[in-house]
């Protein structure tokens, strides 16, 4: 067999892919082959999020997630859990009681603990790494004013990690976020996570999602953040890598994409596939990004792509619906983009 991505980086870090509910239900042969050739870590794209796994109070739904774990074990992959405490894809009943009133801090913290104990308890010994808290800070370095924060204050993060550590003392616990490279955000995350670690809380590392554009952030901006994380003594995982070839990702360049392209509009400039010039740009971008990761390989546990194939990427419908993105290393028939792979082999 051809030596794959995971072999290329075998001495450096795990190479992961996020799987959808469809992926684990259908398990098409071509996908399973691709996983076994190229990946040695898996993440659940949506199927372990609160709304998927704990849709109603007292009701846990582990079917899809169990399939994910079985598949991962069969392939010998390192398994990630994503994500225990987030403000999104979490049902309303978590935050509000039956009368629609916000939960008390006592009730909300009990809800959180019950969720973490049940979910981590179910996968104990199988899922080795958890994104415990996701996206708790704003790009400006403030605590995100989510229901978690508004009801429990900053201690909700600490409580989540303490509960997770009790639920599975062996698990590696991560704080995960996007735009971790934005200086105010990096500093806020590191100052808080160091603070609670110094209080005895077990935090293994910082997950940098890395939904990147072709030019933003710069390698240097990413490197500065990586160095800061290392200086604070945390491990790093690249948890959700993709590179968007389309312009104006909202939140990244500060551009308001909705103002330029109405939400329902199609934005698909490359109808016949990615032209050679853009393939070259994407290749160079992947090359410089992996070069950076290799430079810090001693500190990076894992690099995970957010889906395997372009057509399955969430970027096709975000931030505007109907756009077609080319962010990953595999195209339709799970064909590896050789032009990128070849370039990575010469790093
Ligand atoms: C995304 C999924 O890819 C989409 O399918 C879903 O509709 C929304 O969530 N940050 C995260 C991921 O931590 O869970 C998000 O995944 C992408 C941004």
Defining key terms:
347 residues, alpha/beta, TIM Barrel, eight-stranded parallel barrel, 14 helices, 15% strand, binds (3S,4R)-3-hydroxy-2-oxopiperidin-4-yl beta-D-xylopyranoside, EC 3.2.1.8, carbohydrate metabolism, GH10_AS, hydrolase
Describe it for me?
It catalyses: Endohydrolysis of (1->4)-beta-D-xylosidic linkages in xylans. GO terms for molecular function: endo-1,4-beta-xylanase activity. Residues 1-347 form the GH10 domain. Helix 7 (105-122) runs parallel beside helix 9 (155-167) and helix 13 runs parallel beside helix 14 (338-345). The chain is α/β, with parallel strands linked by helices and 347 residues long. Mean pLDDT is 93; it is low at 249-259. It has 14 helices and nine strands. The two termini are 21 Å apart. The protein has helices spanning 5-8, 21-26, 29-38, 50-53, 63-74, 92-95, 105-122, 147-152, 155-167, 183-198, 219-231, 257-260, 276-295, 338-345; strands at 14-19, 41-44, 78-85, 129-134, 172-177, 205-208, 211-213, 235-244, 300-305. The longest helix is centred in the last third of the chain and has 20 residues, at 276-295. The protein has an eight-stranded parallel β-barrel, surrounded by five helices. It has one domain (5-249, 265-345): Glycosidases (TIM Barrel). The chain binds (3S,4R)-3-hydroxy-2-oxopiperidin-4-yl beta-D-xylopyranoside.
């Amino acid at each position: 067999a051809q030596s794959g991505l995971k072999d290329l980086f075998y001495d450096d870090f795990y190479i992961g892919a996020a799987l959808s509910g469809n992926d684990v239900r259908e398990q098409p042969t071509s996908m399973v082959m691709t996983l076994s050739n190229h990946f040695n870590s898996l993440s659940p794209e949506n199927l372990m999020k609160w709304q998927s796994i704990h849709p109603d109070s007292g009701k846990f739904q582990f079917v899809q997630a169990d399939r994910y774990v079985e598949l991962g074990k069969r392939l010998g992959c390192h398994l990630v859990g994503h994500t225990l405490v987030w403000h999104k894809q979490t049902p309303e009943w978590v935050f509000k009681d039956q009368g629609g009133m916000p939960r008390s801090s006592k009730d909300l913290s009990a809800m959180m603990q019950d969720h973490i104990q049940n979910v981590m308890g179910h996968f104990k010994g199988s899922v080795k790494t958890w994104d415990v808290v996701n996206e708790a800070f704003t790009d400006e370095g403030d605590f995100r004013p989510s229901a978690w924060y508004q009801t429990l204050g900053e201690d909700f993060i600490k409580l989540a990690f303490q509960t997770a550590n009790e639920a599975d003392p062996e698990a590696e616990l991560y704080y995960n976020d996007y735009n971790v490279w934005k200086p105010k955000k990096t500093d806020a995350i590191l100052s808080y996570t160091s603070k609670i670690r110094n209080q005895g809380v077990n935090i293994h590392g910082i997950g940098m999602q890395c939904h990147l554009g072709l030019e933003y952030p710069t390698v240097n901006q990413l490197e500065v953040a990586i160095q800061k994380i290392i200086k604070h003594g945390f491990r790093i995982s690249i948890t959700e890598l993709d590179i968007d070839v389309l312009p104006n990702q909202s939140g990244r360049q500060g551009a308001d994409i909705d103002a330029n392209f109405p939400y329902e509009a199609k934005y698909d400039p490359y109808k016949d596939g990615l032209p050679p010039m853009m393939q070259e740009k994407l290749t160079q971008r992947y090359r410089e990004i992996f070069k950076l990761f290799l430079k810090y390989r001693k500190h990076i546990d894992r690099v995970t792509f957010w889906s395997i194939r372009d057509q399955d990427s969430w970027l096709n419908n975000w931030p505007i619906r109907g756009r077609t993105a080319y962010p990953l290393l595999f195209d339709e028939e799970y064909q590896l983009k050789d032009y990128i792979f070849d370039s990575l082999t010469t790093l």
